[in-house]
Amino acid sequence: xxxxxxxxxxxxxxxxxxxxxxxxxxxxxxxxxxxxxxxxxxxxxxxxxxxxxxxxxxxxxxxxxxxxxxxxxxxxxxxxxxxxxxxxxxxxxxxxxxxxxxxxxxxxxxxxxxxxxxxxxxxxxxxxxxxxxxxxxxxxxxxxxxxxxxxxxxxxxxxxxxxxxxxxxxxxxxxxxxxxxxxxxxxxxxxxxxxxxxxxxxxxxxxxxxxxxxxxxxxxxxxxxxxxxxxxxxxxxxxxxxxxxxxxxxxxxxxxxxxxxxxxxxxxxxxxxxxxxxxxxxxxxxxxxxxxxxxxxxxxxxxxxxxxxxxxxxxxxxxxxxxxxxxxxxxxxxxxxxxxxxxxxxxxxxxxxxxxxxxxxxxxxxxxxxxxxxxxxxxxxxxxxxxxxxxxxxxxxxxxxxxxxxxxxxxxxxxxxxxxxxxxxxxxxxxxxxxxxxxxxxxxxxxxxxxxxxxxxxxxxxxxxxxxxxxxxxxxxxxxxxxxxxxxxxxxxxxxxxxxxxxxxxxxxxxxxxxxxxxxxxxxxxxxxxxxxxxxxxxxxxxxxxxxxxxxxxxxxxxxxxxxxxxxxxxxxxxxxxxxxxxxxxxxxxxxxxxxxxxxxxxxxxxxx
Length: 609
Prior knowledge:
By secondary structure, the protein is of the alpha+beta class. Helix content is 32%, strand content 21%.
């Protein structure tokens, strides 16, 4: 039988390796930014076009490379970071596997310009699909510039799997956040399609967090600091009242490297136990300094997963320190069920000494004696004094006057259930402030009030995006502030938001000002609506047949729908029932969940057999 096992060609092997390292444009951004940091750069610029599908370029002022190093950097497993296997357990750099540039060059058009400070001229290297097409000397600034164009040009199937530009840009910004937060001493800037998204100057960790996520972040942060034999912990956690539905602002850095750890994340969540509303996630930005010999980074190609020698100890320290910080800054609730609040001293008497009350007793007073006590100690009116109050009042006149008096009372109104003259019949009832029960001929209808109202609002918002929406003008403009990431999402949706009734007077990265809202939307609900919309865009955008107006209608309906637990009047219950069954799809919610179910009389009869 002929041999069937054979060695793969280099270009095929490179493409397979690229699949491990480069999953999407954000993966390229991560690798290039980390290379620039390892090169000792103090200023790094990121340029992106069409969410990285057309261009990803990173420019740094690092030490650059020689002609030979520039060429070798694109070979597989060529690295300057390690020389022997033991170096894997003493790593202080980002990259060390020697796979990033080789993998990127296998699936894109790459152009590198690099120059060392000691050289007069730099090197220009052009590669297409692992093949070097040109190499020449050029005049270029000190440092390196790597441009990755037409990502996945030779793997169309992988390119087809990429999501929309909005989603891919979000992933790029997430990777950008992870790198810039780990290195506040380096200046970073980012541009997308020529627009300036970030311009971060070097500073301390707190300044970098605030400049990345917006000025209002500063008031949300609680500092965390602890030094032990096992690790050094520093950073910040967010106050519970500012928690969000998404996990967007959760960052662990181990030795200045971003990692993902569900185990350590659980430690933070347990520290916040009892402080968060249901469904909300805590925010944290934590730096862990650990001895490199006690961790293993080389367990995943992207190096975002890590192994610790003693995870249990780190878990316990992390949980205790965060809990202590929350309590120290009066975030944790203080409950003392044994204390009687009636014994608290009023503020105006604080610091004063209490005085004992004086009691005077008339020892000569005898209640069984006929003689009156001394007038100086006790005063008692004569019998004639109180009898004179009733002179001229006889029992007959008392009863007559009582019968003639008119007493003021509340107007008597009959119950809607008992009055036979009431024409309207009670057809709906509310169960546990969650379900609306409606009687029908065959039995009864059980409706989920939240899902029903979602369906009603969803179809109404869909109509307004087609027709001209009606807006209610605000007496005073409403100003909102969002992070640069959230701003880019809302900017893409501005036209769709206006079609639903939102009126913007200002729409900039620094401030968003509204002068009009859709009818039915309250001022206090606007920020909630936008946060829900941003959350849905980030996590629920479908890849095929995506409609912005559809997603916007779903988000608005989800934010504004009546929540379970709200008591509804009879008229509100009947409105929901009647409006629901005038919808096109009354049986399912916008999230494709059941809105109502029927319970027939026959099914009830079986319960009593």
